[in-house]
Design brief:
The protein is an alpha+beta fold and 375 residues long. The protein contains 8 helices and 16 strands. It has 3 domains: 8-91, no CATH class; 102-237, no CATH class; 255-371, Nuclear Transport Factor 2, Chain: A, CATH 3.10.450. It has a 6-stranded mixed β-sheet.
Length: 375
Amino acid sequence: MLTAPDSLDAHFLDTLAGGGWINDQELVWTLVVEAPGRVLELESRYGCLFDRTAEGRIHQKPFAGQTHDRTIHKGDLTGIEIMNRLSEQVLRRQNVRALEECRAVELLLDGAGRCRGALVLDVRTGRFVVVTARATLLAMGGGPTMYKVVACSADKAADGMDQPDQPGHRRAPDRDQRAGAYREPRRALSKRFPGGVDRAALHGARPVARRRGRGVDRAGDADARDSGRGGASLVDGRSRRLKHQQTKEATAMAFDGEAFVDRFNTVWNGHDVDGILSMMTDDVIFEASFGKDPWGSRAVGKPAVREFLEEMFERVPDIRWDEVRHFARPELAVVEWLTTGTPRGSTRFEVQGCDLLTLHNGRIAAKRSYRKGQL
């Protein structure tokens, strides 16, 4: 958001809607608040030249799902402009060594399962190179090629996203399962391995779960793949994806969405706190539709949710939710309702809203409520 009538709130709501209302709202709010400053930084500090209006302001155009003209651009080559300018900044720094046309094949671990760097394939030469580091940041982006129509290059297969989940990898307990960042001390000794591969003895470091890396299947890499140069075997990851898909299909077949929503409505309208909690995971994220924060008010874990529910049912003893419609799938359910009630010492309310339920193995892992505002 750079100019009126756009606003942070409008950008926030558009982003939530674009994410199907299952976004992490704190991260969305951080994005919305930080974005204008990052745009100005790209221009004033790093030299990105975005299109301008006749008045000299940064030009903004509409994109799908936006309620205001919000997208800045450099013609239709915005991504190239940003990547070129940022690449220049990297190359001009003496303390950064850039590896061109190199693809990460696997993370390297020490004997305790901690990440000490990565094994990468130099696409130009077909040789493997070891990169050691105190910190290894995995920045794979999304998985665009999972969709039927994409605009990116075909090698962006997102197969690097599961590298932290390979057997033997030790994950920090506070890391989200979809992303990884490892910050560990550097400890490495150079060593030559058979086949001419430059590797390292990292106090017992071992490559694990060898797999096909991004770009290895391109035609230009056939000699490296067929000859087994470097003494490393690259394993096709399709069997892993097939097994994951079969598990998802089995879960979908076992899920009875109608029965789930019926029980959900019954326990809530019965003020059955134990019944409500039995439908949730132990670490459930519960967000009410009211509160002082952008996401309303939040309780995490069953004990906190129990305390919230008992206080709410005591404060509004006749509260109920009459369903309007619902949608239920194994990983997501949406229940739209009309809620009514009379808080103690106050007047009766009647307002429409909905619950967005993120599900895991048939139980609610996150419940986020939204309701119409009333003036």
